[in-house]
Structure formats: C-alpha cells, structure tokens
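FORM 7B: Structural annotation worksheet

SECTION A. Query
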Amino acid sequence: MTSHRLVVLPCVAVLLSLVALAPHGLTTQTEQFDLVLAGGRVLDPETALDATRNVGIREGRIAAVTVEPLVARETLDVHGLVVAPGFIDLHAHGQDSESYRYYAHDGVTTALELEIGTYPVTSWYAAREGRSLINYGVSVGHVGARRALITHDESLPGAAAIGDKSRSWTHGALQDAELPRLLSPIAAAPGSDSSCVMSALRAPTWPTLTP
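SECTION B. Predicted structure
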C-alpha cells in the first residue's frame, strides 16, 4: 500500500469525473480498494452531502464514501481539498486536445459548444472519438449550414438543401449532434431572418441527449 499527500493550489478540487457515484454506504476496514481519497471535503449535489469523508474507488467506480478509514493499494491524502463531481461547461469554444487539457486542470470534465455550434457535426464527432481527455459535445450550427448553402459548398451535406423550404436538412443534423437544441445568433448570420431560424427550430423530432 502506498500513500501520497496531494499538493495543489488552494481551492482546487479533486474531481470525480470518470467514476460513477455509488450509494454512500459504510464499508468494513478490511475491504481492499484500488484508490482511497482520504480526508477531503466531499460534495455530492444529489444527496446534499457536504462533509469530510474518505472515498474508496474500485475498478474505476466509487465503492464507498464513509467516515471510516479505508484500506487501498494507493491512498491520496486530500485534507483541505474539495472532492466533487466534474464540472460541465455549456459554453466552451476551445474544442481541441490542448483546450481539453486545460479544462481538466480547471475541473471541467464535460465541455459543450452550444453557442455557434458546427456543421456538419458527424465529422466533428468522428475527429474526437477515442482521442479526447474529457467529455465533449456540440450543437448543430445554423451559421455553418447556411454558409454551405450560400457558397454552394458541394463538400458539405447542406449544399443539397438549397431551395428546400421544408428545412429538412436540419432533421438528420440534429440527430447526428445528439443534443437537444439548434442554436444560432442571427447577428452572426447577416441576411438571415427569424423565420429561417425558427423553421429549423420547429423540426418535428428532437434527439435524446445520451450520456
């Protein structure tokens, strides 16, 4: 068993993002854990827990949150630190590996680009699959789709939608994004009007946001 004192800047949290929170039951001292975070201020919004606890992690999941001492192959002394779920940033323009690294240092474990979005979204997700340090997501960008229509960019799916008054191009793109909103500030798309944006927002079926 090894023990370490985690030394970080004040107020920096120990973030539990890639492990799932389990029920906060007691455990015996004889159970062996892979990792224990000892003595931190544990915050759990779901149960309103805000107290000093020891957190036992086994096979990548939280297996115990308790006041009892725990035995593990590795123990981190996190006294004076906050142990909390990772934060979700809904307005994150930096969507590259370097930005994801900085987000992780800041405690952000999910970074979503829900303002300008992107288009098409399929290639955006494919470029990050299996390569991202944290969770990520993007909305369908009306601005990018409209640009494809205006410039007749044959490399983008939007080019086929020129003159399509039903705005059917939005349906597949929304499903690809796996996010429940299509956002676009009209100011960022000179020449478009509210009817153009609203017709996209009235797509009959919205996708389900999956974890």
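SECTION C. Observations
The chain has two domains: 2-85, 87-201. Residues 97-105 form the longest helix (9 residues).

SECTION D. Sign-off
Analyst initials: ____
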